[in-house]
Amino acid sequence: MVVVIYSFAGFFGFLAYGNDVQDSITLNLPNDHLGIFVKAVLLFVVYSGFLIQVFPIVAMIWPAIKKKLRNSCGVSTTTKRIVHFAFRYSIVVVVFLLSYAIPRLSDMVPLVGVTAGMLLALVFPSLFHLLIFLPQFECRIGFLFDILLDIVCIVIGMFFVIYGFITNVQHLMR
């Protein structure tokens, strides 16, 4: 649903502004009442989406921290609660500092896209397929073809990740 909403926003934003569209569609909006309202709604959507995106990170990492706190002698419930909130706030501060350190987000989007996109599209599925089904190896043509296809996808994906990463870093250096 999120992909559909953002796709519609991008499509209709391009229809409205054509080649004059800026890096963020909100930069094209006028500063009248409707434009400010749309920017406020988008701010709320991004803020809510950030909370949803941070939740799994905390849910995965917090149990290990909680276990270490539980093993420590004399850690009270209040201290655990303070550490929990400090952990959540530290994630927000790190993300804020990263966003502040990157003045033009449009320069970073291709870097993240090529690395994460290629890893998620080609490398990880093939690697997981190999790891799961390789122990059940049978010397059949179909199975050998699957292994070969997985290896080719991993090699091509890693080539694109490395080449895209190097190209984007060179672009950022200019």
TrEMBL record:
It is a multi-pass membrane protein. Keywords: Membrane, Transmembrane, Transmembrane helix. This is Amino acid transporter transmembrane domain-containing protein. Coiled coil: none annotated. The chain crosses the membrane at residues 34-62, 82-102, 108-134, 141-166. It is found in: Membrane. Residues 2-166 form the Amino acid transporter transmembrane domain. InterPro entries: AA_transpt_TM. GO terms for cellular component: membrane. It comes from Caenorhabditis briggsae.
